[in-house]
Amino acid sequence: MDFAIPAAITQDLNRLKDFIRTQILPDLSTWTQKRQIPDTMLHLLGAGGWYGIKVKGERLIRGSALREAMIAEELAKVSPGVAIVALAHVDLGLMGLFLFGSQRLHQTYGASAVQGKTVMCLGNTENIAGSDVAGVSMSADKVDGGWMLNGTKAYVTNGLIADLGVITAVSDPQAERNHRLSMYLVNLKTEGVRRKKLNKQVWIPSDLTRLRFDNVFVPDDHLLGTRGRGLQQVLEVFTSSRVPIAALTLGTAVGAFNLAHDHIQKRTVFGKKILDLQAKAFELSDFYAKIEAARLVLQKACWKVDQGEDFRQASSVAKYLSVEIAREVTLWAADIFGAASVIFEHPIHKYPLDVWAASLGEGTQDVQKLIIFRELMKNCR
Ligand SMILES: Cc1cc2nc3c(=O)[nH]c(=O)nc-3n(C[C@H](O)[C@H](O)[C@H](O)COP(=O)(O)OP(=O)(O)OC[C@H]3O[C@@H](n4cnc5c(N)ncnc54)[C@H](O)[C@@H]3O)c2cc1C
């Protein structure tokens, strides 16, 4: 067993820390006020090589899961809202294209998406179906040369800024439940697409957008993967994105922990630094140990991805534990700041809210437990 992080990743992370210091931190409060991230930041993230999918020859390839997780953790320490923009672009949208797009689609959109010039998102959830992925109702009717999409995707991260969406819809309403859906790559600048930005308090400055499709035409060659396999395909994307979202959640915990760690050394109460109250010092130790545990579980999931092993259970365990631990850590860290923590502009304020968001994306905690249980039962037989 080797716990050493490869030198190349460590060097990259040092470069990333410089990038965050010079390119993100100076403008973060402006983006937070405007609740929008500029297009140029997506280009800079691409140019810096901070996305987990790259182009090789004419095809897309996936980089190391460990490297991607460490990048997500680092970004989320300072801004879970910036980290999720990158994650939704790469691990939801681009991952759909990577896993299920034809070579021609890779050639057409891959390079531009990897550079952050074509922004991507994934729309599956509808008002009537979130955890129950198979229950979506958006229709895809076969027409000459393609498909006609009608319906609404209720919650789409990057929906406001994306050029391309990976969208699930019912192509075969008469088929049995597991074969009703197909997955499409949709040009969101097509006529018939309407976007409504939702007013949310989490993961600022990312957007959460409702996408409405009225007779949106999708050409035949933009069907992703196989007709009738949309459910299995979107679940495969979510299984994969659970690893980086676990890392993003861990980074959210670490960001809050670091702020609290700094504050307890400075703040005096009853004539003592908070750090000198042993009850609080022990809380610090407790949360440090839990963060370490969550990171080891996450790194095991990354290792499985990088070895090409089945990581279904490992990714759910990583996401489940990182959310549980981040909930505790961020609420504790906010408490350390007392009343100041409730003020919107205070740096600690957003961390507990961002864990709330993370607990929902890529499956709630109940859904993670369901997957862990199913895998457990498979392995028991
Ligand atoms: C900030 C944010 C960003 C998002 N971004 C995207 C995006 O980019 N694309 C996208 O498609 N979706 C996105 N979503 C939607 C997200 O994936 C769903 O909210 C999530 O899957 C839960 O679905 P739901 O909201 O319909 O809740 P429901 O499925 O209605 O769940 C309600 C409750 O029932 C529980 N529950 C559900 N099923 C079971 C079960 N079988 N056993 C036990 N308990 C169960 C849940 O845990 C939860 O407590 C986003 C959501 C948020 C908050």
Structure description:
The chain is an alpha+beta fold. It folds into 3 domains: 7-118, Butyryl-Coa Dehydrogenase, subunit A, domain 1, CATH 1.10.540; 121-228, Beta Barrel (Butyryl-CoA Dehydrogenase, subunit A, domain 2); 232-380, Butyryl-CoA Dehydrogenase, subunit A, domain 3 (Up-down Bundle), CATH 1.20.140.10. It has 11 helices and 12 strands. It has helices at 7-24, 28-34, 39-47, 65-78, 80-100, 103-114, 230-266, 278-307, 312-336, 350-360, 365-380; strands spanning 53-56, 59-62, 120-123, 139-143, 146-157, 164-170, 181-187, 193-197, 208-219, 223-224, 268-269, 272-273. The strands form 4 sheets. A 4-stranded mixed β-sheet has the order 3-6-7-10. Strands 4-5-9-8 form a 4-stranded antiparallel β-sheet, with helices on one face. A two-stranded antiparallel sheet has the order 1-2. A hairpin with a 2-residue loop joins strand 11 and strand 12. Helix 8 runs antiparallel to helix 9. The longest helix has 37 residues, at 230-266. It starts with 6 loop residues before the first helix and ends with a helix. The structure holds flavin-adenine dinucleotide (FAD).
